[in-house]
Amino acid sequence: MPAITREEVAHLARLARIELTDDELDHYAGQLGVILESVAQVGEVAAQDIPPTSHPVPLTNVFRADEVRPGLTAEEALAGAPVVDGEPAVEESRFRVPRILGEEA
């Protein structure tokens, strides 16, 4: 059963340049002990006949085939343009938007 002592936690805190109070040393010693026990349990489960894996289930390619399908025509797409001053906000087969960079006309 792995355990970490209060002195080992203090040593680690010094190495990390972290100042801990006495209460924090006791608290972290308990928490780190639980972490070390959990890691030890995982190590016990691993067996020589089980290969290491990055995923518990095999991954497969989930991409669909590239197929050309008909899309919207320019007129159909521009039909959804918002109406501004009673007219669709369309200009030269594009959506008309307000200028934001002070461009010259």
From TrEMBL:
The keyword Electron transport does not apply. Its EC number is 6.3.5.-. It is an enzyme of class 6 (ligase). The keyword Nucleus does not apply. It catalyses: L-glutamyl-tRNA(Gln) + L-glutamine + ATP + H2O = L-glutaminyl-tRNA(Gln) + L-glutamate + ADP + phosphate + H(+); L-aspartyl-tRNA(Asn) + L-glutamine + ATP + H2O = L-asparaginyl-tRNA(Asn) + L-glutamate + ADP + phosphate + 2 H(+). PANTHER family: GLUTAMYL-TRNA(GLN) AMIDOTRANSFERASE SUBUNIT C, MITOCHONDRIAL. Heterotrimer of A, B and C subunits. This is Aspartyl/glutamyl-tRNA(Asn/Gln) amidotransferase subunit C.
